Amino acid sequence: MIGNRGTVTEAANFNPDADAQKLRESMKGAGTNEAAITEILAHRTIAQRQRIKIAYKQTVGKDLADDLSSELSGNFRSVVLGLLMLAPVYDAYELRNAMKGAGTEEACLIDILASRSNEEVKVINDVYKKEYEKKLEDAVTGDTSGMFQRVLVSLLTAGRDESTNVDEAQAIQDAKEIYEAGEARWGTDEVKFLTVLCVRNRNHLLRVFQEYQKISGRDIEESIKREMSGCLEDVFLAIVKCIRNKPAFFAERLYKSMKGLGTTDSVLIRIMVARAEIDMLDIKAQFLKMYGKTLHSFIKGDTSGDYRKILLELCGGE
């Protein structure tokens, strides 16, 4: 599950008991030592943080996440609590939050479901059921509608072909069918897009995109923008972008979360926490390539206080 292109790597000479003790001391007495919390949690892997949680419970007799939750607030607290969770638990938690209460944060459903592997989606489904006593699919269908809902349900089945085979004749056929379902007709047959984009493997789809360009004279992303709108457009674009270059997809999401007025902290936090140990090095490289500025400089200019400090640590320097 964890990649080897992360900015967060295993801490050498790791001692969970010592870390638990330091965290305990950071919360003792008046005020909290946020710097100590950042120093430990931003420089330990998810696996190491689980061992710190166990050590904390053994030596203090309390739950580390509960203690930190009552001591901290705001965005800093959100990052810290996210770091203490296993990856699929964090994804399930984020999905649940996106659908809680009035309104839905569709961007969260898209970010997670369009970018995770079959295995990751299966584990998220299991965790969601266990933690929230409800099937994730039921939660999604209760909260979304129409074709957007159908795309998410398809992604939730975790049934994408993950082989590397390219069926040349099928790729040409797929490109032709997508073209005929969209650009070549009045109205759009979105099911055709779903069938190809949610089911075929990555290599095959890259070939379909090439072929599509030949037939239509347009990039597939451009056609999706012309043919669809709203969340459906967003989810299909996310799938295409993740197939082409996942780190570039996340780099763009981070850029958009910080550019202009205000920051979409939920997106910024989710990606920084979820990708820190997987492909943050690649996301940073893509960010620089796409926007001519470092991710580090963007975070620095867009956030403040302890929240800024912990994100910069997860970003791993310039």
Structure explained in plain terms:
By secondary structure, the protein is an all-alpha fold. The chain contains 19 helices and no strands. The chain has helices at residues 16-26, 34-41, 46-60, 64-71, 74-83, 87-99, 106-113, 118-132, 136-143, 146-156, 168-181, 190-197, 202-216, 220-227, 230-258, 265-275, 280-291, 295-302, 305-315. Helix 5 (74-83) packs parallel to helix 16. The model has no long low-confidence stretch (mean pLDDT 94).
Keywords:
318 residues, mainly alpha, elongated, calcium, Annexin_repeat, repeat, Annexin_sf
Can you summarize this structure?
This protein is mostly helical and 318 residues long.
Write the layout of secondary structure elements.
Layout: H1 16-26, H2 34-41, H3 46-60, H4 64-71, H5 74-83, H6 87-99, H7 106-113, H8 118-132, H9 136-143, H10 146-156, H11 168-181, H12 190-197, H13 202-216, H14 220-227, H15 230-258, H16 265-275, H17 280-291, H18 295-302, H19 305-315
Helix pairs in contact: 1-2, 1-3, 2-19, 5-16, 5-19, 6-7, 6-8, 7-15, 9-10, 10-15, 11-12, 11-13, 14-15, 15-16, 15-17, 15-18, 18-19
Family: Belongs to the annexin family.
Organism: Astatotilapia calliptera
Protein name: Annexin
